[in-house]
Specification:
Shape: elongated
Distance between the termini: 54 Å
Structural class: mainly alpha
Order of helices and strands: HHHHHH
Number of strands: 0
Number of domains: 1
Number of helices: 6
Radius of gyration: 19 Å
Oligomer: single chain
Largest sheet: none
């Protein structure tokens, strides 16, 4: 915490952050790709079991919720916090983002008058 305060006051970063920013970028990219594939993975896994798109959507939603909760727990462990609140907040933020994305897709489908 002292390093962060000094970095803010002096405008410099600790030596470890200056030397290897690629590591932070690589970890962020890998987490984004792996966790972002969670809904698609659920659809792929459910293909042999069901042809019902509603079941696949529910499976993708549940799998995404589990991944978001795990991300919140990982964030809490890294920050040295308790796991419940960060997991709930990450899950809530993901649910809001997913609902907005679904709403935009639904709206655009209706504006373009596309049929299933």
């Amino acid at each position: 915490m002292v390093d962060k305060k000094m970095a803010t006051d002096k405008g410099s970063l600790p030596q470890e952050e200056v030397e290897k920013p690629w590591r932070n970028g690589l970890v962020t990219c890998a987490a984004f790709v792996l966790c972002g594939c969670a809904p698609l993975l659920a659809f792929i896994v459910l293909i042999p079991f069901t042809h019902n798109n509603t079941h696949k959507f529910v499976g993708a939603s549940v799998f995404s919720a589990v991944v978001l909760a795990l991300l919140g727990i990982a964030k809490a462990k890294i920050a040295g916090q308790s796991c419940l609140l960060p997991a709930a907040l990450t899950l809530f933020n993901g649910a809001i983002a997913g609902a907005v994305a679904y709403g935009i897709g639904w709206t655009l489908r209706n504006v373009a008058r596309l049929e299933d």
